[in-house]
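Q: Hand in one record:
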Amino acid sequence: MGKKYGSVGEQAEEILIMAQNLDETIAILSRTPVALEALLRELPETWTHRNEGEKSWSAVEIVAHLIQAEKTNWITRAKWLLEFGESRAFEPFVREPEDGRMAGKSLAQLLGEFAWLRSENLETLRQMSLKPTELEKRGKHPTLGAVTLGELLATWAMHDLTHLHQLTRVMAWQYRETVGPFRKYLGVMQCDGHSAP
């Protein structure tokens, strides 16, 4: 089943809307640690510790943020939603990666910690044996208001893709001058959003 979208003067394009499917969500979530490992392990720090300037995040800070989310966001909020419904809002999530979470840890250690936490959280999610009706259960987000469990879990997977996108953009930024005039053909260097911290 699809919906048609388009603007005046443009031909409408049919876009299929994916419904929440827990197995398909888990398929994305289970691959993120592998993607991070493949992209980041043993890279020189010039790729992993530099950002885009100002308050932007480096690759290592993005991994620290993902660790923080594994510890305090997705599964924690899923359990909270199932227990309290809309009667009690989720605790606010601190989005900025805390320096203390990275103190004294190498990128390899952070990647290992993230992989372990993700594995544990996915095992917890599987053991919850959620039924389709439970995915429709509503909870209360502190700023967005009512959200369903299905929306929360779908957002977990899309949060991963957002930060993988951000990660490649931050890394590409390091060669913004090095590529010379080819820059105008490189979409990753034209992107100025979609993943602001």
About this structure: The chain has one domain: 20-190. Residues 82 and 137 are 7 Å apart (CA to CA). The beta strands are 2-5, 13-16, 138-141, 145-148. The first strand starts at residue 2 and ends at 5.
